[in-house]
Please model this.
Amino acid sequence: MKNVKTLAVFVMLSVLTLAGCSQDTGSSSGTAEAGSVTTLRLGHIQNEDHAWHLGSKRFAELVEKKTNGTVEVDLYPSSTLGSDRDLVEGMQIGSVDFALVAGVMSNFHPEYAILELPYLFEDNEHLRNFLYGEGGENLQSEMLEQTGVRGLEFFIRSPRLLTANKRVETPDDLSGVKIRVPNIEASVEGWDAMGANPTPMNFSEVYSSLQTGVIDAQENPASFITNAKLQEVQDYLMMTEHVYGYVQLLMSDKTHEKLSSSEQQAVEEAALEARQYQNELVAKQQEEAMQTMRDAGMEVIEVDRSLFKEKVQTVNRNLADKYGRDLYDEIVEMRE
Model:
């Protein structure tokens, strides 16, 4: 009897010990999963007051919320991670996780060059109808296949305007004017056709180059102009509205593959909500930027856009044949 009682006690203690170990292991595993955080990097070329950064900030907040804190996004504004080209190349190799990039994508996926053609889109509604429809979806799918960079969302930008240190009312007034343009073929050839002397240059160099006379003019959306304080070194603002453009929230496909399916879905949902927020913000900042330039003493000049548009038609047709006549025709037909 004594041996039987001893054996029973031993078995009971063993069961309790195993049960306790099992509970501890489960608790430890759960804590490890809950505490695991993936930190990703998002870069762009604008400063912290710009709509791009505020839209990025909202995106980061939404990603953290929708993943219950398993994914965090750190922001790197003001070209901290490099120029647009640097950011795209970083996403291709996986050293950059997200970026906001505009027309420079045409250097990596040539069909994007079509979207940069001057006077292609009539207004922002025309642009939205294309980007948020089948055309934009197809373009992003092709880009992913060819570059390894995933398009999440298109954010709308306000139209590009011309600033200069002389009045420009017609293309003839552009003769001899050295104008900074982004390193995009459509921009270079378009401004050349309009009569200017285009000079590709990183945006971070524009202020000092205008200040020292290296260039005479530049073209950008209104909020870009005021965020870079270009109203301090430019006297005239021309309402050319030559490009209705976008900036694209991009993601490295290498990063995308590392996330769980639920985290991937959370990122996509966050991008959509950030798009809606950022688009509303851009419209507001456009009005504020125009007032800032007027208050700084810049003279605002309304131009006959048809004169400028006429000058670029040959360039547009040639680049359409080079990079995507079908895409070009699709966009033009949407005007009707």
Remarks:
- The mean pLDDT is 90.
